[in-house]
Amino acid sequence: MKIRKAIIPVAGLGTRFLPATKAQPKEMLTLVDKPVIQYIVEEAVAAGIEEIIFVTSVGKRAIEDHFDRNFELEYRLAQQKNKKKELEEVTRVGKLAKFAFVRQAKPLGDGHAILSALPFIEKHEPVAVFFGDDVIESKQPAIKQLIEVYEKYQDPVVGVFEVPKKNVSRFGIVAGTKLSPQVWEVKELVEKPSVEKAPSNLAIVGRYIITPELMDFLKKQKPDNDGEIRLANACTSYLKSKRAMYSCVIQGAWLDCGTKINFLKATVAVALTNPEVKEEFAKYLKGLKI
Q: Which of 65, 149, 199, 275 has the maximum number of C-beta atoms within 10 A of its C-beta?
């Protein structure tokens, strides 16, 4: 089946960015002039996804407002002849896709967040899943690369990047059989292994294609010791049942926005590609004396 829908869990509290995230969602923090969540939605839309389900929590209303119409703002921009570009941009955002919002009743893990979106997903359809800390710059949308792997094999697909071996303990790591430069059949998934025990350097990034079969495993997944239901554990159970899963080595630049230092790096990377500011910003960086 065609991948038409995406689930984006955005219920996290963003405690790493306090106090900035006390009154606004971390997904609304901006890279230059767009919030992180808009980059992710635009990636989904560019890949042909038509419907997006946000899994939210208390304090996330700003995300819903961002992808809704703001008639007063549009009216005021329309009255100013020099604000045509801004008017086109704010009206475009609300038309990117069909949006739905559902609350995650309790913070019970990323797997529980995905399950909260099930009322919007047909039992027989596969779905894309994005996590909100990861922006990926690429010629072909990252999720489209996963979709092409899914279309070939009709099984779940995990997005991965190659990382330095010394960094593997920060990520979920997959290993398996290499089928092509970009595609591996996954045999093992290890959460944050030590450098010595890591089976590979293929780190999971926040992009997945979940099939109905994998969703069934997620529905049955028992909570961890901390009470959370995790997608990674459901993937492990799925693999142990001898079912096929694939990983796609994404071609592009991974901008991890999950920590302060990585968010700053992502901001610089985006600024240096933004046509409005890149030249002046590059001159500023060159002139810094540190």
A: 149
